[in-house]
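Narrative of activities, Objective 1.

The group set out to show that a structural description can be obtained from nothing but a protein's sequence at a throughput compatible with the screening campaign. Below is one input-output pair from the validation batch, recorded exactly as produced.
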Amino acid sequence: MPDPDTTAPTAASAAPGSTPGSTPGPAVAPPGRRERKKAATRRAIADAALRLFLERGYDDVGIREIADAADVSTTTLFKHFPVKEALVLDEDADQEARLLAAVRERPRGRSIPAALREHALRDRMAAAGGDDRFTPFFDLVDSTPALRDYVQGMWLRHSRALARVIAEESGLPADDPACAALAHFALEAPRAARGHDDPRQAITRAFDLLENGWHAVAAG
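Output recorded for this entry:
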């Protein structure tokens, strides 16, 4: 289960598709049997945790119960998820990698705000429509202080990492406040669009504003 302001619950998450006009990346070898088994175990644990948390609440479900539901030992569970919060928000590193790749690997001529807009619409919104657990997942996180704090920590890490990459790609100082501002608002746009009648339009309009502001920074 990933960051609730990044995408939908794990079972609905799709691998990021290629953007029209983008250059295909290097071919990736399929995972071996051991890696597939580890991934399947991790998914089983995460799905069991989400099911139990949605049924009974985060604080009322114990680690041993989750391990039993996934048919693994608690030792195995902790190998995959070192803290309980990670059971709900388990794609932190993958999400950050996709976010940074959206900037680093954008097609020639595409602006940074445009690349982040495409990432927001593709990876941060598209998965939400196909999973009926999406709203309960948000409710779970929003109603659980430990999860809210964990999400905030993730959000800050992603924002700082994105600001650094924006600065690198733009030839600006690492501490340039414009890079920090663009990173902040690019991550905030999908959160601000939650509950809007047309979230995609809301995100697009927000990024139109960011594009105009960033154009002035880049031109300077």
